[in-house]
Amino acid sequence: MRGGKLAWILPLLMAVPAAAEPLPDTAAIAGTAKKAMTATGARGLAIATIDRGKVVSVQAFGERNAGGDPLTPQTIMYGASLTKAVFAYTVLRLVDEGKVDLDKPIADMLAKPLPDYGNLDDYGNWGDLAGDGRWRAITPRMVLGHSTGFANFAFLEPDEKLRIHFDPGSRYGYSGEGISLLQFALDEGLGLDTGKEIQRLVFDPLEMPNSSLIWRPDFAANLADGWELDGKAVPHDERSRVRAAGSMDTTITDLANFAAALVSGEGLSKAARAELRRPGLAIASRSQFPTLQDDAPEAERPKGIAASVGLITFTGPQGAGFFRGGHNDSTGNTLVCLDRGERCVLIMSNDVRAEAAFPMIVRDILGETGAPWRWIFGDMKFV
After folding, report:
1. Measured distance CA(48)–CA(210) in Å, rounded
2. Which of the 8 DSSP states describes residue 119?
């Protein structure tokens, strides 16, 4: 009888990941940062770590501009598409307040048909959708899970016209245009102000005083410019319009507080937190970009990755985790978190060349996570 119990229990014990090792100390992380910058030529890099849902380390290395001024934990950096994670968290807070239903069509949030609003510079070319009624099926969940059927942005289309490429909700296709649609629904349909809601629901309660979706003059005193792949220095943009798809300026210190809330579920109901972490639509493309590529053959599809409400979930040797990134020609950001131990590594760089070292940085700090680097970065050569 006793042996029978052991035979039943041992497989269960073996299936549970071992207790997490202590995270590296600040000196070891600094060594990893130096290694990454040497290998890639990146001029600026900031790294934060979260353990048990709390920020335990925030460091910055290198330079914030071509003049050689130091990059610090309080330097204003471009958040890029990490803005989308902040927006998703905001929407979930609004769900908790009863103002948004993830599965109610956006059409029901608007006073008139979406195409009737025409083409709006501040939001999107909604008039282009006249004649294709599939827009009526799009929900906030589809937007946050990137399954609207839109291209990333309409201006990337050959004729620069917005169109729906596949039935909404049927497959994954990264789209900033979809995020703009949900922002429009909040602002126009519900009478909210997305920038003010993010301030109320994220920046204020999570102690992010140096974060904003529009430019603030006080940012100029400690601002990160950037470097492109060819080493060209470029100035930091001054974004004058709230764009939930990617206009956030922030600091590694502020964003670490947000990452800690994201992995711990701080500020969210149990149900809302579950939406962030629950694998939703399975992803079948070889890589994240280009956004409208065909699904890969079954044998070539990435394993175990899916779109949740605002994140990409994956399963690796340490169990479940999630990813969110941000990128432009002179910016590379990534956030990788593990459910086990509520651990994260947040990386922000004002030099896009640093992205080639992101898998190494995360591995040095968290160990092997199973983060889908090849799906994220495609054919990039990693260090």
Report:
1. 16
2. B
Any idea which fold 23-83+211-383 has?
Beta-lactamase (3.40.710)
> Which amino acid is it at 219?
F
Residues in contact with 372: Cβ distance below 8 Å, sequence separation at least 6, in sequence order: 302, 305, 312, 314, 323
Closest CA to 33 of 23, 44, 18, 22: 44
Q: What is the pLDDT of residue 358?
A: 98
Percentage of the chain exceeding pLDDT 90: 95
- Tokens representing 83 are 């803005």
Structure tokens at 10: 């041992």
The pLDDT assigned to 7 comes to: 47
Q: 242, 376, 239: which is closest to 311 by C-alpha?
A: 376
Residues of the chain with pLDDT under 70: 1-19
**What's the Cα-to-Cα distance from 232 to each of 65, 68, 138, 331, rounded to whole Å?**
11, 14, 40, 12
Residue ranges of alpha helices (H) inside the chain are: 2-15, 26-40, 82-96, 140-144, 176-184, 194-198, 252-264, 270-277, 358-366, 373-377
pTM value? 0.94
The whole-angstrom separation of Cα 152 and Cα 184 is 16
| Contact assessment for residue 277 and residue 339, using Cβ atoms and an 8 Å cutoff | yes
State the Cα–Cα distance between residues 135 and 114, nearest whole angstrom. Answer: 8
pLDDT score for 283? 97
Residue type, 352: V
Dihedrals φ, ψ of 162, to 5°?
Answer: -75, 135
Give residue 21's pLDDT. 87
Q: Which residue has the tokens 């937190």?
A: 273
What are the two backbone dihedrals, phi and then psi, of residue 129, each rounded to the nearest 5 degrees? -85, 0
Crossing angle (nearest 10°) for helices 82-96 and 252-264: 50
Say which residue the tokens 């992380």 belong to: 29
Q: In the chain, where does the domain assigned CATH 3.40.710.10 lie?
A: 23-83+211-383
Residues 269-291 pLDDT 10s: 999 999 999 999 999 999 999 99
